[in-house]
Design a protein that fits this description.
The protein is of the alpha+beta class and 434 residues long. The chain has 8 helices and 24 strands. The protein has 2 domains: 45-130, Sandwich (Immunoglobulin-like); 138-432, Metallo-dependent phosphatases (Purple Acid Phosphatase, chain A, domain 2). The relative contact order is 0.12. The chain binds fe (iii) ion and zinc ion.
Length: 434
């Protein structure tokens, strides 16, 4: 009897200490070990899908066998394929490494919000995908800087639990960092998710892998993660755009020229001039290096690109800009030119996917006026675009269960706020400039 009270007190003390003490986050994790197993030469590996123009989807996979065919059979009932599409293939070598055969096959036209069953090159298991809806609502999952660690696994598990239509990845995918087989293990790690929903990506510095005088950059990335750049009038896989329901999404390249005379800048102007806000009221941009960042990590790296491109995005009325690179989460107010502005974009840094470099903990103080929420934790975001005027943004920490939101916000579109009418004149001026 005498021991009962001290025990209870002890338990209470430990409990309150645990709650009061600062949570110490675990150390960055090492890249996962992937057991190697030989597959039949035509066996499809690293299957992932991406949007490829209105009602079309690109199926990408790798085979060890160089003579494996690049066709995809598909249909809306399991095991019954009433359509077949022929694709193309590529491969590359990198120092002592030779890639498998990398296949890209576009299927469609497809119905919206429909499950399709498909098989790659007539071999291996059946996969299934769901197309996004043709109209609102549409849900995006967002996390950059993924890598392939235990933390990545945790992020993917959380993303898998959320109901999303399209995954948006603002750069830094595999952290292969010149070790080419890590591109293969990354492809295998993400396949369960990326074969089922379109994964739309843009490049980060970890995709570069150039070697001066020997290798150009982005060779592996471009070969493996082909995005709909041709479909969007771009001449480079490093920047492109696509539309899903009422949302126009622009993927910019932080590591390709962006000055006013660059191809990217001119493509961006052309792309923006085609956006019809009565058809796509929402305008979203992704790029790797954040323009609004109050973390000491990568401080100021986005300044050059911001100086050139922010006036254009502001004039066009971009609603949200997602970035990665800084391994943490930060959300801004609507901003422009460094200051809160109701007609500017909400900037969200979400480089918190879980790579081997770990988190960026050090923030500048005082917190800038534009910065609303910032935290160095791994996690992912969800953007549910409900209709032409409202979207719900939430950020989910990996330390919590998926239903727990660490940060959340209703975002009203600029289209519904009246900002776009004011902007028309300045956008026209910039677009008309030679
Ligand atoms: Fe990174
Ligand atoms: Zn980066």
């Amino acid at each position: 009897m005498g021991r009962k009270i001290p025990d209870l007190v002890l338990v209470l003390c430990i409990f309150s200490a645990a709650v009061a003490a600062d949570y110490v986050r675990p150390q960055p994790r090492k890249t996962l070990d992937f057991p190697w197993e030989r597959k039949p030469s035509s066996y499809p590996q690293q299957v992932h899908i991406s949007l490829a123009g209105d009602r079309y989807m690109r199926i990408s996979w790798v085979t060890d066998g160089k003579s494996s065919p690049s066709y995809v059979e598909y249909g809306t009932s399991p095991g019954r394929y009433d359509s077949t599409a022929q694709g193309e293939s590529t491969s590359y070598s990198y120092l002592f490494y030779s890639s498998g055969k990398i296949h890209h096959t576009v299927i469609g036209p497809l119905e919206g919000n429909t499950v399709y069953f498909y098989r790659c090159g007539g071999e291996g298991p059946e996969f299934q995908l769901r197309t996004p809806r043709a109209e609102f609502p549409v849900a995006f999952a967002v996390a950059g800087d993924l890598g392939q660690t235990g933390w990545t696994k945790s992020t993917l598990d959380h993303v898998d639990q959320c109901k999303y239509d399209v995954y948006l990845l603002p750069g830094d995918l595999s952290y292969a960092d010149y070790i080419q087989h890590r591109w293969d293990t990354f492809g295998e790690l993400v396949q369960p998710l990326a074969s089922a929903r379109p994964w739309m990506v843009t490049q980060g510095n970890h995709e570069d892998e150039s070697i001066p005088l020997i290798k150009d950059g982005f060779q592996s990335y471009n070969a493996r993660w082909k995005m709909p750049y041709e479909e969007s009038g771009s001449s480079s896989n490093l920047y492109y755009s696509f539309e899903v329901a009422g949302i126009h999404v622009i993927m910019l390249g932080s590591y390709t020229d962006y000055d006013e005379y660059s191809e990217q800048y001119n493509w961006l102007k052309a792309d923006l001039s085609k956006v019809d806000r009565s058809k796509t009221p929402w305008l979203i941009v992704l790029t790797h290096v954040p323009w609004y960042n109050s973390n000491y990590a990568h401080q100021g790296e986005g300044d050059g690109m911001m100086q050139t491109m922010e006036p254009l995005l502001y004039a066009a009325g971009v609603d949200i800009v997602f970035a990665g690179h800084v391994h943490a989460y930060e959300r801004s107010k609507r901003v422009n030119s460094g200051n809160p502005d109701p007609c500017g974009a909400v900037h969200i840094t979400i480089g918190d996917g879980g790579n081997r470099e770990g988190l960026a903990h050090s923030y500048k103080y005082p917190q800038p006026e534009w910065s609303v929420f910032r935290e160095a934790s791994f996690g992912h975001g969800e953007l549910e675009v409900v209709n032409s005027s409202h979207a719900f943004w939430s950020w989910h920490r990996n330390d919590d269960d998926e239903p727990v939101r660490s940060d959340q916000l209703w975002i009203t579109s600029l289209k519904s706020s009246g900002c776009l009418t004011q902007k028309q004149h300045s956008l026209r001026k910039i677009l008309m400039a030679p």
